Amino acid sequence: MSQEVTLPAGNYVFQCYAFYRKGAAWNTNPSVSDAVIFAGTTEKKVWSLGGIPLGSYPGNQNGAADQFANGYYMNTVEFTLASEQTISIGCKGVHSANDNSWFVMGPAALYKVDNAGITGSYYLKNTGNGEYFCSGNDWGTRAVTSSLGYAVKIAAADGGYSIDTHVTNGGASHFLGGEYTDGGRTAFVFEPTGTAGEYYIKTSANKYLTAGASGADITLENATSNNAKWQLESLSDHETAAATALETKVSTLDAATNASPVDATFYIPYATLMRNNQHMYNYWNTVPSVVGNNPHFAYEYFNTNFDIHQTVTGLKPGKYALTVNAYYRAGGNETTDGDTKNAILYANGIEVPVPNALPAVHGNNAGTGSDLLYNGAIVSDPLYVYVDNGTLTLGLKKTTKIDNDWTLFNYFKLKYHGNDVVTTEYANELIGTIPAEETVPTAVYSNLTSLKNTLQSTLAKSDYDALAAAVTEAKEQIAPAYSRFLTAKTNVLALKDQTTKFTDEGGTATSTLVSACSTQQTAADAATTASAIETAITNVRKAGSAFAGSVSIVKGEYLDMTDAMLFNAAMRETGGLSLWTIASNTNPAYPKYNGRCSEFWGANFDFYQIAPELPAGNYNIEVSAFHRAGTYHTYLYANSNQVLVLPITNGENSMTDAANSFDAGLYLNSLKITLDAATDVRIGFKNEDTAEDTRSDTGGATDKWTIFRDFKIKYFGEDALAVYRDEYEQALAAAEDALDNATYTNVGGTDRSNLSTAVTTTYPKSVVEDDETQEKFETATEDLTALTTTFKNGVARWNTYVAGMATVKNEADVINTSIYTGLSLTVPTTAASTSATLTSNSNLVRVAIADYVSANYTYSLTGKIGDFSTWTGTATSGGAADTPQTKNNEHWSATTRDYYEQGVNGWGSATGFSVSYTKTATLPAGNYVIKVAARASGSVSGTISTNVDANEVALPNFGASSKGIDISGAANFGSGTFANSNNGYGWQWRFLAFTVDADDTEVTITIAATTTAQWNWVSLADAELLSDADKSTPITLSDANDMASTISSNDGELATVTLQRAIKVGYNTVVLPFDLTAVQVQAVFGSSSVVYDYSENSADVNSADLTFTTRGAGTITANIPVLVKATSATTENIIAGVIIDAPASTPVATGTNFDYLGVYDNTTFGAGDYFIATKAGVQQIFRSNGTDSAKPFRAYFQKKASGDVKANLFIDGIATRINDVNGIGDEEEDVFNLAGQRLNKAQRGVNIINGKKVLVK
Predict the structure, then answer these.
(1) How far apart are CA 198 and CA 22, in angstroms?
(2) 1227-to-388, 431, 727, 1223 alpha-carbon distances in Å
(3) Looking at the 3D structure of the chain, how many domains does it have?
(4) What does the DSSP assignment read for 261-329?
(5) 1121, 1131, 1133: which is closest to 1160 by C-alpha?
(6) Maximum distance among all alpha carbons in the chain?
C-alpha cells in the first residue's frame, strides 16, 4: 500500500499508525513483525501485537481506530533527500496463507523537518499566556508555565526532537514526556505555525502541548490553539527579554514605602525550591532532600549541619525584608525543647533564627509540616537588611547540631521597603566607624554625635547620608590633619626641653611658647575643616620659631628644630615621602621606600616642606643622601640656597646597601644658610638633570639613582662660626667612633694609623678650637671626613683580607701550626693593597703546606681510597636529583686526564647545585693527610672533611684561569710550566690532616660543594691518602718468577710493592694486581704516559681489529689488562699504599675473536695467539706458533675461534704497524714514506706498509 510523492531536498519524517499480528488472536507469543512502513529505500518494522495479553489490544478495526485516536501504535521513519526526487511511501508486509495474521493501518503524515536552529538550548515561551515553560505541581514534575521558566535542550531523536528539562528522576529520566518533566527520552514533532521561530509541539499521537493559566498544568490537546504555540527564545534573546521584564518588575518597587512594602521575591531565582530541578544549582549552592505532601513539598535537613545560600545582584538600593517558611525541631520526636533555635536565616551578615516547632504543636512528619509551610502557618521573623551595592547574599544555615534535630523549609520571600529608611543594623554599622573622640577636634566630634543621635532616632536615609558624609570627611581629611597638629604641637613644645642648648632669661620665651601652643590647641579643637587645622599647625610652628629666636643658644650647641618644623623628616613613615609635597616627578613609579630609606630612579623630581618664620641666625640643613649618574644637578636646597648632593663612592647598588652606608655615617650632606630676619624657608631635595646633562661615563639619565633619608634642621643662633664648629665636631665624633667601633676592627695599615693620628694629634679639639677660625674648622672637617670615609669604605676589603688569611692559616694549622708561624708574611698598608697581599700571602702558605706534607707525609695509602671514580658521588640541581659528571679537557697536567664535577644539570640550574663525594676506608691508628686537587667558580662554597674530627678546609674557588699546580704536579703560583697556555686552569692542592686513634677505624672522607647561583661549577681530581709512618706490608713482585701464588697469599694487604718488571719506552702490555691512580701511573711509566683499554668485536671471523682506546682517567684498574705507552724506561719501581687484589680467575678483557689475557705466571702462548714484541727496533704484533711465551705482569691476545684469524692492531682509531706478522721470523714488506720513497724499514710517523697507512710511534 503506497503512493508516489515528489519532494524537494531536505530532511523528512513519515509517520503512520499501524500494527501487525502474526497468527491467530490467541497467539500471544512475542514475534517479529513481518510488516514495515517505508519511504523510498528507508523502512522500519511496525508495531507487533505478539506478547500483549488478550483484552489489552484491539481485537477489531473499531478497537484499532480507538487505540490510534489515543495515540498508540505510531510508527516513524526518517529519511533525507539530497535533491528533489519522486519516491514511494507506504506500508507493506509478507503474508503466509492460512496463518490468521492481521495488519491494520491508520492515519499517516509526512513532515519536512528542516527547521534550522531547532537543536540547542532555548527558553520555550508560550504565545498565548506570555509565560515560559518550567516545572511545578505534583512534586515539581508537572509541566507548567511561569514568568521565570528555565532553559531546555532540544535534540534530534527518533524522527523528531527530545526536550531535556534537566529535572531528574534517576538515570536518563530528565526529559519532557507527555505532561511531565522528569520522564524518559520522548520524541516530539515541532510543526511550524507560519510565524518565524514559532511552533506547535506535538506528540507522536498528534497531541498538542498546550499551556493554561500562570502556574497551571500544561496539557495535551487534540486541537491547536494560541496556547499551543511556542516560541524558541535563544539564551541571549531571553537574557534581553528577562532584563526588560526585570525592569518592569523593578519599576513596581518605586511605589514601596517603609509602611507599604512591595514584593521583590522576583530578585531571587527559585525562591521556591523545586523537586529535583537541576537548574536550581545554577543559583543555590546545594539542594537538600525533598519531602512532604504533593504538591506542598518542602525541603529538610535531618541530624546534620548545613548552609544553603545564593548571591543575587542588581538589587535596587534600599531596605528589604527577607522571610522563609521554616521551622526547627531541637532534637528527636520526643523533644520538649521549645526554646532552642539553631536554624538561622541570614542575609549580608545579618541573622534571624527561624521558629522552633514542638512536635506537639506541628507534628513530626513531613506531610503535616509541608502543608503548614505551604499555607504560611510558620514563617520566620522578617530579616531587615539595607542593600547599598546591589548585592544580597542570603541563605539558611545551622552550625550547631542536636542529635536527631530537624529543619524543614521552603518559600523564601523578599519585600522592598523603599529607600527612605535604613535598618538599625545598617545604621549601627556606619555609627561604628565614627572616629574616636580623641582623634578629631571637639567641634567635629560634637557634630558627629549629633548626627548619630538623629540617625538612631529616625533611621531616615537622608540622615544616614548626612552622617556618612561627615564620617568620611572626618576620617579622610580632618582626623589626619588633627593628628598632624598634635604631633606638631608636641614637637614644638619639646623645643623647650633642650635646656642644655639655650638660656631663657626669666623663662619668658618658654612661658610664651606654652601659652601660644595652648591657644592653638583651642583653635584646633574648634576647627570643623582640615584647612582650619592646617592653619593651627602653621601657627604652632610659628610659635616654635619665635621661641628659637627669643632664647640665647649656648656656644658650641645648636637647637634641633627638625621635628618641630618637618613632618617625617627621617623618612621612616610608610610611603617614604608621606607628608612631604612632591612638586614634580618624571617617573610615577617612584619614590619607593623600604622602611629604612627612600629613593628615586630615572627621574627628575622636587619635594619639599615649608618651615614657617624660621628666626634670624645661622643654620645647618642636613640629609643623608647620594646620587648616581648625573651628579651635577641633584641638590639639597633651602629657598635659593643649594648644595650638590654627594656622588656614590662605595659601590652601593641597592636600598639595603645605601641604608647600611647611612647607618655607618657615610654620605652626610650639609647646607649652611644664614637668615637676616624671620623667614618662611622651603626645605627640599631636587634633581634638575636635562637631556644634555646625560653622560655616558655616569651611566646615562635612565640609570640615575637618588637615595635619601634623615633631614635635619640645626639652629645655631647668631654665632657665625657655630655651623662650622658643629660640622667639625660631627666629623671628629664620627672619626673617634669609627676607631672604637667593633665593625671596623679589621681595618689596619695606614688606613687606621692616619685616622688615629688625625684624631689624636692633628685635629683634636685642643688644637682646632684654640684660636678657632672658619678655615681651621673647614680644613679639619674636610680632612677628618676624608680619612673617616677611607677608613669606613675600606672595611669590606679589610674584612675579606682578614677572613682570607684566617682561612689559609686554618689550612696550615690543621697540618701543623709551625707552617704558618714559620713564614714571613706581608702586612697590607691600605685597603687597596689587601687583595694583592692576600693572594701573595696565601700562595706562600699553600706552597709551604705542600712542601711540609711532601717532607713529612711520605707514605702513601692511596689504594685505600682509590680514584674518584670509585667514590660515592651524589648531586642535586635546583633541588632535584642529579648525576655527578666526569670531564677531561682541563686537567692541571695539560693531558686528557679525567676529573670529576658537579651534577650534569648543575651548571645550568637557576637555583644552583649541591654535590658531594664520599669514601670510607678502614685505617690503622696513625696520622694522615688527605690531598686533593680542586677548583671552583667564585660563587661555590666547598669543604673537605672527615668523620674523625670537626676540622675542615675550604676548596679553592678562583675560577678556571689561574695558577696553583704546574704540569709536574707541584704546588706552584709563580714560574714554571702550566696548562692553559701557561695560565693554569685554577687548580690548587688542598690538604686536610687527621689522626686515627685506634686500629681498624672506619674513616669517611667527604668533599662537598654548593651554590645557589646559576652558571657555577666545581672540579675535583687526584685524591691521595698519605701518612707520616709506613702502614704497609713490603711485597716484591718480580717478573723473573711466577707471581700468582704470592699475589694470592697477600690478597687484601695494604702494601708497598717493589715491582721488578722491565718497562720500555713505547707500548707495554700490562696487568697489575692493584689499582694505580693517574699520579702513580705517571710516576711508574713517565709523566706523559698514556693508558689504553682493549676492545674487539669484529663481525668477520677471519679478520679481527684489536682496538685500544685512551683511558681518560689515566688510571690502571687491578686485574684489567691494558696497554701503556711509557715515556720512561725502568726495571724496578716502588709503589706505596696499594691494596693487593688477587683475581678469582685469569685477568681478561673480553673480545669477540680474541680475548686480551693478563698473566701473573710465566705463560706459553697457543698457536694462533697474538702478542706484541719488538722487531728490528720497532714494536710489532706477532702471531705465535705455539712456542712463544710471556713473563708475569704482561698480556697477550688469545684466539677464541678455530681456524686462521688475521689480526689488525688499532690505537685510538689508527692502524699501528703491520697486519698479522706470520710467526716470529722476518717477513719481507714493502715500506714507503708519504712521498712514495721506498724505505728499508718503517720510520717513526706515518708509513705506507703493504699499501696501508700505518703509524709508528
Answers:
(1) 43
(2) 113, 119, 102, 9
(3) 7
(4) -EE-GGGSTTSS--TTBGGGGGTSS---EEEEETTEEEEEEESS-EEEEEEE--PPSEEEEEEEEEEEE
(5) 1121
(6) 152
What pLDDT, in 10s, does the model give residues 1189-1247? 999 999 999 998 777 778 888 898 887 754 433 333 333 455 667 666 666 666 667 77
Q: Is 747 helix (H, G, I), strand (E, B) or coil?
A: coil
Residue 1157 pairs with which residues in a beta bridge?
A: 1148, 1196
C-alpha cell at position 957: 674557588
Are residues 328 and 374 located together in one domain of the fold? yes
Same domain, 101 and 139: no
Q: Are 26 and 69 contained in the same domain?
A: yes
Structural contact between residues 738 and 764, judged by C-beta atoms closer than 8 angstroms: no
284, 146: one domain: no
* Contact criterion met (CB below 8 Å) for 337 and 327: no
Would you state the cell numbers that stand for residue 1040, as one nine-digit string? 723473573
User: Which cell numbers in the block locate residue 1174?
Assistant: 719488538
**Residue 195 has which C-alpha cell?**
510565524
Amino acid at the residue 381: D
More confident site: 613 or 279:
613
The DSSP H or E segment spanning 372 is helix 366-374
Higher pLDDT, 435 or 1152: 435
| Structural domain ending residue among the three candidates 549, 573, 608 | 549
In a domain, 533, yes or no: yes
Inter-helix orientation angle 479-493/508-526, to 10°: 170
Residues 613 and 677 sit within 8 Å (Cβ to Cβ): no
The C-alpha atoms of residue 602 and residue 586 are separated, in whole angstroms, by 8
At position 434, the amino acid (one-letter code) is I
**Same-domain pairing of 1144 and 1047:** yes
Domain extent, residue 299, equals: 256-419
Residue 483 near residue 491 (C-beta atoms within 8 A): no
> Based on the domain organization, do 95 and 128 belong to the same domain?
no
Q: 288 and 408 share a domain?
A: yes
Which of 62, 89, 112 is the last residue before a domain boundary? 112
Sign of the CA dihedral with 800 first, then 802, 805, and 807 last = negative
The answer to whether residues 553 and 501 touch, using CB atoms and an 8 Å cutoff, is yes
CATH code of the domain in which 940 resides? 2.60.120
List, for residues 482-531, the tens digit of each pLDDT value: 999 999 999 999 999 999 999 999 999 999 999 999 999 999 999 999 99
Q: Is 1041 exposed, middle or buried (0-12, 13-18, 19+ CB in 10 A)?
A: middle
> How far from each other are the two terminal CA atoms of the chain, in whole angstroms?
107
Q: Using CA atoms, how far apart are residues 1065 and 1085, in angstroms rounded to an integer?
A: 8
CA 403 to chain centre: 47
Pairing status of strand 552-553 against strand 502-503: antiparallel
Distance CA 235, CA 250 (A): 21
| Cα–Cα separations (whole angstroms), residue 772 to 45, 116, 654, 898, 1131 | 127, 105, 41, 74, 90
Residue 169 inside a domain? The answer is yes
Domain assignment present for 998: yes
Distant-in-sequence, close-in-space partners of 347: CB < 8 Å, separation ≥ 6: 320, 322, 383, 385, 392, 393, 394, 395
CATH of the domain at 638: 2.60.120.260
Residue type for position 880: A
* Angstrom distances, CA of residue 20 to CA of 70, 92, 93: 18, 11, 9
Q: For residues 615 and 521, state if they share a domain.
A: no
Does residue 327 sit within a domain? yes
